[in-house]
Design a protein that fits this description.
This protein is an alpha+beta fold. It has three helices and seven strands. It has one domain: Nuclear Transport Factor 2, Chain: A.
Length: 156
């Protein structure tokens, strides 16, 4: 079954599994749910929750479906691959992987490119994603989604 990772404990092969799980969620937010454990989910340590669009954590299929569906009106065509462009950090912790990568998407309405750098810590349990901890720059998201703007002038 493609929703369970059964390959070797190889960070690059796990990256392929993770990329397959995540790519395309902007068109179908539920497509990634089978890749996660029933109590699995995403953590966003730097999410600016005071803007109402972002959450610090979504755990379980229903919460993931609600959260990612709420983002669909804002962007489309998310692409975080290919994994050959990712920076992969090897850990001694079993079944835990750290990846650095750049994702792009199109901002709906404006057609503007959304480009975000990520550091993700992914933990597998039984061949499924238990935790996907995603670190990203909240300013980029706030600016590109029109929730914040740069101040004009020289910032010296």
């Amino acid at each position: 079954m493609k929703h369970i990772y059964k390959g070797p404990d190889d960070a690059l092969e796990v990256a392929r599994f993770v990329c397959n799980a995540v790519n395309g969620w902007t068109e179908n937010p539920t497509r990634m749910i089978p890749y996660f454990t029933p109590d699995g989910g995403w953590e966003f340590p730097f999410a600016p929750i005071e803007f109402g669009l972002f959450f610090k954590e979504v755990r379980g299929a229903e919460a993931m479906k609600r959260y990612f569906s709420s983002l669909v009106p804002y962007m489309e065509n998310l692409d975080i691959g290919p994994v050959e462009n990712w920076i992969i950090h090897t850990l001694k912790t079993p079944h835990t992987y750290v990846y650095e990568y750049t994702g792009t998407a199109t901002i709906k309405g404006s057609g503007k490119l959304y480009e975000q750098n990520y550091i993700s810590i992914v933990t597998l349990d039984g061949g499924k994603i238990k935790t996907y901890r995603e670190h990203w720059d909240p300013y980029v998201a706030l600016r590109d989604f029109g929730l914040a703007r740069a101040v004009d002038g020289d910032a010296k």
